[in-house]
Amino acid sequence: MQPRYQGSTVEAIRAAVKLFGKEAATYRFTAAEKKALADLVYTYKRQGIRTSENEISRVGINFMMADYEENGENSILHKVLTALNQ
Length: 86
Prior knowledge:
Blueprint: H1 7-18, H2 31-46, H3 53-71, H4 76-84
Helix pairs in contact: 1-3
């Protein structure tokens, strides 16, 4: 099965997340979302890959924006926001 994303998308997200984020932001997560992020950080730590909740969140945000830019109304963002507003 082919992944949905291309190597160029992965590289663009890597480059964006590699840049030091200077803008402070606060987001509210559910307890389950926060635990899932912490579990991901721990899973990668056990594999010798350093990451953080912030880094994982930035990957997700950059992926969502790339998906929206490429797919517009067919993007997951558009579909979820449309469903939330029905």
